[in-house]
Design goal:
With 194 residues, the chain is mostly helical. It is built from 7 helices and no strands. The structure holds fe (ii) ion (2 copies).
């Protein structure tokens, strides 16, 4: 367990790659049915839980501090994230093969994609301009911790303890990712602290 090797990937590249994974998973859900659709939807919820929580704990606070007019920008993003959470709570109660699911899922997809685009254009690019490369890379490592504590893919058959932690309703996933993320990142010089 040596010191993590620097990959040189900054937090913006990392999160933009996750946006691409999110888009792919939306397409997989849309193109599946039955158990495959349910499984893809579970993977999507896990990835969204990890991704949005990492943004809320690490990226948005940094943007508030470092980006001109950061509060206005971040408040708009948080409204969008909350809207997505409401739709997810509704989706969790629906049968994935019902027309009601598809209708709400289309709304979620549209909202999440608009949100991701707004982050990339208005928030990430300005954060990249405002911070030093070393800071951006350190933030990426903090965000990456969320992936480690909350695997985004289920392990068929042998669910690990950490995978089980991120099962259940989306709201519970968020709480658990947040606890894991803030606990661990607190040990690492409290990078997201105010
Ligand atoms: Fe977000
Ligand atoms: Fe995002």
């Amino acid at each position: 367990m040596a010191t993590p090797i620097s990959t040189g990937i900054d937090v913006v590249t990392f999160l933009e790659e996750q946006h691409e994974q999110i888009k792919l998973l939306f397409n997989v859900v849309n193109g599946s049915e039955g158990k495959a659709k349910q499984d893809a939807f579970t993977s999507l919820r896990r990835l969204l839980a990890v991704h949005e929580t990492a943004e809320e704990e690490i990226i948005h606070p940094a943007a508030r501090r470092a980006v001109p007019d950061g509060d206005t920008l971040v408040d708009a993003r948080l409204l969008e994230e909350n809207e997505a959470k409401k739709i997810l709570a509704k989706l969790e109660k629906l049968d994935v093969d019902s027309p009601e699911f598809d209708e709400a899922f289309t709304l979620l997809q549209r909202g999440v994609l608009v949100h991701a685009q707004a982050e990339e254009r208005e928030e990430f690019s300005r954060l990249e301009a405002a911070l030093e490369p070393a800071q951006l890379e350190r933030m990426r490592r903090a965000v990456e911790l969320a992936e480690k504590v909350a695997p985004t893919r289920p392990h068929p058959g042998v669910e690990s303890a950490t995978a089980n932690v991120i099962a259940g309703p989306f709201a519970a996933m968020l709480d658990r990712v947040r606890d894991a993320l803030t606990g661990k990142s607190g040990e690492r010089e409290g990078s997201a602290a105010e």
